[in-house]
UniProtKB/TrEMBL annotation:
This is Core domain-containing protein. Residues 1-112 form the Core domain. SUPFAM superfamilies: HesB-like domain. InterPro entries: ATAP_core_dom, HesB-like_dom_sf. It comes from Amylolactobacillus amylotrophicus DSM 20534.
């Protein structure tokens, strides 16, 4: 699996990224320390986050490649993901669009630096 990042997305993530940090793609299902909320409506929601090397990665049992290295995700989210995807910055909302060749997966992906919440 591969997640392509547009240049603006890459630049915005790199601003917060330090050596040893890990990137995560969280399906917002309410499970685990980095999920912000359970799905209470019928929308698919994801969050991109940064965690430090000492933060738990227990539920993130899979990884995909990206220009910034591996991105970890929970296997439960595979039903919504595809082999080749892209994440592009959306200027109007300062969020990101997660899509694949088949179409849009999530039009409002947020970014969270979980290191700031330690």
């Amino acid at each position: 699996m591969y997640l392509q990042l547009d240049q603006k997305t890459e630049d915005r993530i790199v601003e917060h990224f330090q050596k040893g940090d890990r990137l995560i793609l969280t399906f917002e299902d309410g499970v685990g320390p980095y999920s912000q909320h359970a799905m209470i409506h019928m929308m698919v929601q994801f969050t991109v986050g940064i965690i430090s090397a000492d933060m738990p990665l227990d539920l993130y049992d899979k990884q995909m490649d990206s220009p910034l290295g591996p991105i970890y995700y929970k296997s439960e989210s595979e039903d919504y993901l595809e082999e080749k995807m892209s994440l592009k910055f959306k200027e109007a909302t300062s969020s990101y669009v997660l899509s694949s060749d088949s179409g849009m997966i999530d039009e409002s992906v947020n970014f969270i630096n979980f290191k700031d919440k330690k």
